[in-house]
Amino acid sequence: MSAPVKPASDVAAIAEAAEILRRGGLVAMPTETVYGLAADAADGEAVARLYAVKGRPSFNPLIVHVSGREMAETCVSAPPLAERLMDCFWPGPLTLVLPKKEDAPVSELAGAGLDTLGVRMPAHPAAQALIAAFGRPLVAPSANPSGAVSPTTAQHVAEGLGDRIDLILDAGPCPVGVESTVLAIDGESAILLRPGGLPRSEIEAVTGPLKSAEANAPLASPGMLKSHYAPKAALRLNAGTPEPGEAFLAFGPGTEACTANLSRIGDLTEAAANLFALLRQLDAEGYKRIAVAPVPMDGLGEAINDRLNRAAAPRD
Ligand code: TXA
Ligand code: MG
Question: Reaction(s) catalyzed by this protein (predicted)?
Answer without folding.
Answer: L-threonine + hydrogencarbonate + ATP = L-threonylcarbamoyladenylate + diphosphate + H2O
